[in-house]
Amino acid sequence: MTNNIFADLRERVLDALRAAVPGLPDEVAARVEVTPVKDPAHGDMATNAAMVSAKAAGRKPADIASALLATLRDDAMVASAETAGPGFVNLRLHPSALRAQIPAILLAGEAYGNGTVGGGLPTNVEYVSANPTGPMHVGHCRGAVVGDALANLLAKAGFAVTKEYLINDAGNQVVALAWAAYWRYLQALGTTLTEEQFTAEVPGGLQYRGDYLVPVGENLRAAYGASLAGPDATIAAPDIWIDPVRDFTVDAMMQGIREDLALLGVVQDVFSSERKLAATGATDAVIETLRAKHLIYEGTLEPPKGKLPDDWEPREQTLFRATQFGDDVDRPLRKSDGSNTYFANDISYHNDKLQRGAKWMIDVWGADHGGYVSRMQSATKALGGKLDIVLCQIVHVLKDGEPVRMSKRAGTYITLRDLLEEVGRDAVRFTMLTRKSDAQMEFDIAAAVAQTRENPVFYVQYAHARCRSVLRAATEQFGAETVAESALANVALDSLDNEAELTLIRRLMSWPRTVEAAALAREPHRIAFFLYDLAGDFHMLWNRGRDDAALRFLQADRPAETLARLALVAATACVIRSGLAVMGVSPVEEMR
Fold it and tell me: Is the pTM of this model over 0.90?
């Protein structure tokens, strides 16, 4: 027996199927599923075993389904088995089989739901990877939460997960950042230059004007004095200051980003530097690797229809045969000046992940990078890797239905720290996971802190707080040892026969399958949905107990029934904590 009752029933179904269809091919057996039924009136589970095996067996699905019924009806876990539709089999579990899940939960604790579907596969999840040109903002927040929850989810499902951040510290944007920090440095030195005079000397103009660079300029003055400036705090030759200022500023920005991520509860395992990787010659090396596979050629691309992309030039270029791996067109790897394209650098970075042992790579990107997906997947496929992309749509922040004003410190956007200070980490993380990542969402600050059923984080945390309040009261009545999870795992549960109680147990037992399905689909929002539904089942039972004395959790004159319900309450709290841990949200002991 495992903690996944759906997996256990699948093995029983497969045994029955192999008896009914001797010599069942393994590839057919692999397609057999046992899933929850859509309508509880039809049972607890359904299997497609008869449907998927009919062709290989040369028999009608209904005939195989009849053979399955004869075996499954004799299974001690199965109360009833019936055919449905063209050959599905619906199963209703015996109440004793349902109740048996409670001690399994209590003995496993928060580890309940830990799966093996990942098989220890080394999996790299890269997320956030914001350019280090300013503070984290709300646009980064959703990808950070989705990526972190996804990594937690995959780890719970049995994958060996590495959480990674790519520092985009190469390219024109960090040069522009260095100029902006240099301006703040000159200001700290007391320059007489006006911003207009300074901007006239900046290639491309002064791009980053937020006040967040003022402390960087002051720290540059403290570290270097006036050594990086010209006479009277004027502009010195860039070759004197550009490298130290760039490196100093990127480090300062990354320190702030790490601090903001930590406030969000995000701590990544690896921070990779794009500039350091490029300095090793890795990009040129991976181009030669692809050339050796005959996937590089010199040619001229046809002009694309519509708006021309930045990397298209009407000349002979070094091209990657991306179309051999599913992309629309072949892609350039070198610019006209002989330098490598961003795409080439990205290929090098993903190849570096492969060289570090990643067998599955998952990147969490903003939806504005959607057009980049096919080329990146084609390149990693050419290198023998597997890459999946999770896209996150934009978030609109509202307060009482009105757009929130931009941050003065950042200059142009709402910072992540602004949002966290307003509503708190738990509300931010949970709310960001209440929509599928590729769906646009509105984050209403007032709704995120409201203490109503419509606020999912409150509703779920309130369920956990109610569980804990019952257990605290029970501790006073029975003593801590009696109410310990290990002790409750051994109490008699036969009295749990009310449909509301069995409904709650059915929800609890679906947690391991939810973890597995959500992990394989790369959809952490399913965990938020599960917890909301679980909280609803518990609150319903709580409310039933207020109206029906026989369903109250604590009954002094019925200790056996009370202990059985306490086991159910403790199991519910365990599963809520297990789910919140995946989401990176803290369970609360009591609501204030």
Answer: yes
